[in-house]
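Lab notebook, bench 4. The sequencing result for the construct came back, and we need a structural model before the next group meeting so we can plan mutations. Quick request posted to the team channel:

Model the 3D structure of this chain.
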Amino acid sequence: MIYPPAERQPIVDDLHGRAVPDPYRWLEDPESPSTRSWLAAQDDLWRGHAATLPRRDGWRARVSELTGAGTVGAPLWRGGRRFFLLRTAGQEHAVLRTTGPDGATETLIDPMELDPSGLTTLDNWQPDLDGRLLAYQLSRSGDERSELRVMDVGTGRIVDGPIDRCRYSPVAWLPDGKSFYYVRSRQVCLHRLGTPAADDVVIRGADRSYGLGLSHSGRWLTISAASGGGNDLWLADLSSSSPERPDLRVIQEGVGAVTVSTVGLDGRLYLLTTLDAPRGRLCVADPAHPEPEHWLDLVGPDPEAVIGDFAIIGDGVLLVGRTRHAISEISVHDLRTGERRGQVPLPGLGTAGGMSTRPEGGHEVWFTYTDGVTPSSVHRYDARTGQTSLWACAPGTVEVPELEARQVVYPSADGTAVRMVVLARPGTGPRPAILYGYGGFGLSLTPSYSSYILPWVEAGGIFALAQLRGGGEEGAQWHRDGMLDRKQNVFDDFTAAAERLIADGWTTAGQLGICGESNGGLLVGAAVTQRPDLFAAAVCSAPLLDMVRYERSGLGPSWRSEYGSADDPEQLGWLLGYSPYHRVTDGVDYPATLLTTFGGDSRVDPMHARKMCAALQRATSGSRPILLRHENGVGHGSRSVSRSVDLAADMLAFLAEHTGLSDQAGDR
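Done. Here's the predicted structure in C-alpha cell form:
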C-alpha cells in the first residue's frame, strides 16, 4: 500500500535532560494546509480500502437491526411528574419525555426536531424540585461544550438562557424554583433566572471538575471536586448561610479517597466512601460534624464486592447496590442499623443501573437492567412485597443470537489474577476474535447489550472483554494499581488476556483483533507497539497516543492525576515508558491498524491519531494496512444512531477482513 507522504521534521525536545523526538508535530495543527492535504489523502486511502471490505453493507444492516431495540431510561420523579428518556427503533436520538399526574405523556426535547441534521445532542437535564422548570444542555457537532437553557415544562417556553460553557454541568435547584447552582467554565456558580450569566456569583472559583448535590429539603448543599485519586468534599447548611455565600465546611480534603454524600429525609448524613475501604463502605454522620472521625459504619465493606450505589425507601428500608466481579446485586438492609434483610431479585447475571426513587420517599425503586443478550429495560422493586417486576421494556423488538458467556480468570505478568468474559457461540477450535479493554479512570466493564458485539459472535467470532487494572471492577485499589507509575500493569493485563485466549485454543495470533476507545485507544496503541507479534488487527478509536504532549490539548490537563505530567522529571519517565507514539520502531511488521478520529472531539485531540498514523505508516515493514478514518460533525461521545451504526459496521468489516472471519451474518 502506498501511503501519503508525511514529512519527518528534525524536532527534538530536551525535557529534563532527555532527548524526545517529535517528527510529526506539524500534524498537531488541523488548520494548516499541509495537515489538511495529508488528511484528505488519508481519507481517500481509507475510502478505497473500505470499498473492498466484504459484506460491509451486511454488517451495517445487522448492526442497525439490533440497534432497533431502542432505549428506555429509568424515571426521575419531581413533583408528581416523571421525566425519562426514550428512543424508539426509528429515532436518531433519545427523546426527553414527561408524564404528568394525569397520566398524559408529552415530548419535552427531541434533538431531531431542534436540528434535523442530527448533529445536536442533549447532553444533560435536570428538573426543579416541583417538576415545573427544566434545565437542559445542548451541544452541536460533538463539541460537548453545552449551552444551558431553562424550559417551562407546562408550556414548553424557554424562560432563561442560553448560558454557554456548561459542559455536562450538574444542576442543583434551590427550593424557590428561581435559582440553581451549576458549573460553568469549571467553576461553581449560582444563577438566578432572568439575570445575565455574567452576573452569576462564583461559589468555587478554582478550575476543577465539580459535582453538586442538594438535599430534598433544599437545606444541605454538597460540592465535590476531583482531587488526585479521589475527591475533596464540602457541605453547607443553607438555613444558616446565604445561597450566595454558603458556609462550606470540609468533609474531606486531600485524602485520596472517593466519597459521595447526601443528607436523607431523616436528617442523617450518608457517605458512600472508599476511605479505608477500597471496595467501599456506607457510613452515617451528623451533618453538624461531617468530618471522617465522626463517621460510623452503616454497611461495611465486602471482601469481594464493590459498593457503588444506595437508596432509601419505604419504612426504614435501605438498598445497597454492589458489583461482585462486575456482576450487579442489590441487597436490602435496615436503615437504622444497617442489618441485612435480604436481596432484591434481579432478572439475571447482568448490570443494574443507578437506583431512582421518589424524592419525598415511598416504597418503590426503579433501575435499569441489561446483560449480553438483553436490551436495557426498567425494573421496579416494591419494598412492601419484596418483588421485582418489569416496568418498561426496550421499545423495539429484536432477535438476538444464542451465545455462551464464560468468565476466565488468568494471571497477569506479576501474578495478579485478572478476569475476562468470553462470549461465543457453541463450538470448538480457534476462531477469529476481538479482545476489548479499557483499564482506566476507575470505570468498570460490566455486562451490557451491544449491537456491535452480537453480530460478531453471531457470525462465528469470539468477543472477549478484559476487566483490567485501572478500572473499577475490583474497587479503588484495582484502579490505583493501573494508574500513574503503575500504568504498565494495564497493558500487561491486556497482553496476558491475549496470550490466554491463544493458549486455551479460543483463537490464534493470526486471528486476533483488538479494540479500544479513548483511554482504551491508548491501551490498543500500547499493545500494538509493545507486542505487535500477538495481534493480526487493531482498531484504535479516539485515542491518546502522544503521552508527552497529551496535557496540551482537549481535556488533557484534567487527567494528570491519572497519567502524570511531563513537567515532572520522574513522571515523564513513566509516560515515555509506554507512550505509543514514541515507541513506534522502524522495520516492525505491525498489525493491520485502523485509527478512528472525530472532528468535533474536544476531549481527546485527533492529533494523537494523526501523528501515530504517520509514524506507523513509515515504520511498518509488512503489507498489512495502517489507515485513518476521520469523521467530521461528531465528537468523543454522543452522536446520532446512524452515525454510530456506520462506525460500528466499518470497524467490524475491517476486523473481519484482517482476522479471517467468514461473515455469515452479513447475508441475513
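The chain has twelve helices and 39 strands.
Will bring this to the meeting.
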